[in-house]
Design a protein that fits this description.
Elements: E1 2-7, H1 13-22, H2 24-42, E2 52-60, H3 67-70, H4 74-83, E3 95-104, E4 110-116
Parallel strand pairs: 2-3
Antiparallel strand pairs: 1-4, 2-4
Helix pairs in contact: 1-2, 2-4
């Protein structure tokens, strides 16, 4: 099992939707920024040749965002795995179970991802 920590928070679903309504380039820029952030951190991982299960621990600054909005950040993280070349694609053949857990850490918001092959 591999563990990855990505510091900070990802944009919530509401923010993603608002960006996409502003202009296609605004969302494109957001997706590029957060996917690149995830890919950079994922570079240290080995390549996964079999299906992987992902467990996300979302450590948020507070409880203002709904959990279903928070997990939208998984899109950037999984796309980051693909961009870093750690998985071939993000389809059903490569991605198994997705599990989400939530905590509050005001001083150190982050996402901890456990990857099981």
């Amino acid at each position: 099992m591999e563990k990855v920590i990505i510091p900070g928070e990802f944009p919530a679903l509401n923010k993603i939707i608002n960006k996409s309504k502003q202009h296609w380039a605004a969302y494109s820029q957001m997706k590029k920024e957060y996917t690149n952030k995830a890919a950079y951190i994922m570079n240290r991982l080995p390549k996964f040749n079999n299906k992987i299960d992902l467990t996300f621990y979302w450590y948020c600054k507070n409880r203002r965002k709904d959990k279903d909005n928070i997990i939208a950040g998984q899109k950037f993280i999984i796309d980051g795995l693909v961009k870093a070349g750690k998985i071939k694609n993000d389809g059903w053949k490569e991605i198994g179970d997705l599990i989400h857990k939530f905590e509050v850490d005001k001083k150190n918001p982050r996402v901890e991802i456990f990857i099981k092959q």
